[in-house]
Amino acid sequence: MDALRERIAAELVAARERSHLLTALEDRDLTTQVSPLMSPLVWDLAHVGNYEELWLLRVAGGVEPLRPEIDGLYDAFEHPRASRPSLPLLPPDEARAYIGTVRSMVLDSLKDLREDRLFLYEMVIQHEHQHDETMLATHQLRKEPSGLTDRPADDPTPGPPFPPETFIPGGPFEMGTDDPEAYDNERPAHVVDVPPFFIDTVPVSNADYMAFIEDGGYARAEWWDPRGWAWRCEKDANAPAFWFREGVWLRRRFGDVEPVPPDQAVQHVSWYEADAYARWAGRRLPTEAEWEKAARWDESAQRSRRYPWGDIYTPERANLGQRRLQPSKTGSFSSGASPAGVRQLLGDVWEWTATDFHGYPGFQVKPYKEYSQVFFGPDYKVLRGGSWATDPAAARGTFRNWDYPIRRQIFAGFRCARSV
Ligand code: AVJ
Ligand code: FE
């Protein structure tokens, strides 16, 4: 139990250091809105503390609200992102003081930690990291340099050569998990029979994607879902977000302009762009079940793993955790391959799947319906795997993310599949 308390405390501290790093800006850069898609950074900052107060102090600890008058401001369902800059939000210093007070009470509360409350602590740690990734997307939308450090030295040496696609035999596999610390939408574990298929060994690269553009990918409706074509026409989209052409393809990344590196996974594409690319390539997006089977299923042991490479996380196996501010070269991290040999399933870029976000058979809300359940339905597509910006605390073979098919400020790319 002591080791557990120490681990939880360390993870809370690490998440908070990250939040502070992402909000180490002038006040006006924290309070202004970069895009109607995003909250002002100061909203995310106070929201993570308010969420922590709600779940760990009030619900788990039975403590009275510290500042009940601010709850409404930080309720994501009361105020859509576009309206948040006009709210009487706590100014940056007050926000930092408030979340600091909550945090010291939470660290204190760890002395009474109970096994059945562990899920709430894990949930709060993941929640802060999820907002940190959202804050990174806000930074990426800003035109100014972010001041964040990239560490290209972390780039692993390229792995051995790999086949362009990997065969996954047909048959049942265990999807999802019964882990009590997983989110409700990952539970329960259940058997899914998946017909045989091929899946790309690595994510679609910028060079691959450029070939689609050169071939008139954005000019021909035939490759596009009709709603995707309407989106691309309305937006006049001709390339991934943040790309522009000056003889060669350039991209803006955290305020700097640089040539698009051909051998990295493409990112900042919408589901509609991924879907159009796949059709152009004579392929399709993998279903969510196919993605998870390729990522977790160990055919010889007849079991699903937590991570593609095994059950224990080690940092050298995937580009996770904001160690660098971009995807790595496609084909790297061969030591993180799944049993079937598929690479870079975790980290680098979130991967769009063909599947709408729904609860698994036997889904039960835990601990509140606004985490997952209210998003179930045809409006959201599932993304898998986590990006370079995802913390390992919120990355595993069962983790499910979701977003609208038009969104591309998130760090999302894709890989293709085909039926046999
Ligand atoms: C799972 C990333 C879609 O950011 O909207 C944050 C996570 N839920 N606060 C989001 C979340 C509540 C969620 N995503
Ligand atoms: Fe939240």
UniProtKB/TrEMBL annotation:
Which EC numbers does the record give? 1.14.99.50
User: So what does this thing catalyse?
Assistant: gamma-L-glutamyl-L-cysteine + hercynine + O2 = gamma-L-glutamyl-hercynylcysteine S-oxide + H2O
Enzyme class (EC, first level): oxidoreductase
Q: Which InterPro entries match?
A: CTDL_fold (IPR016187), DinB-like (IPR024775), DinB/YfiT-like (IPR034660), EgtB (IPR017806), EgtB_Actinobacteria (IPR032890), Sulfatase_Mod_Factor_Kinase (IPR051043), SUMF_dom (IPR005532), SUMF_sf (IPR042095)
Ranges of residues in domain Sulfatase-modifying factor enzyme-like: 166-418
Function of the molecule: Catalyzes the oxidative sulfurization of hercynine (N-alpha,N-alpha,N-alpha-trimethyl-L-histidine) into hercynyl-gamma-L-glutamyl-L-cysteine sulfoxide, a step in the biosynthesis pathway of ergothioneine.
Under which name does UniProt file this protein?
A: Hercynine oxygenase
Q: What is the lineage of its organism?
A: Bacteria, Bacillati, Actinomycetota, Actinomycetes, Streptosporangiales
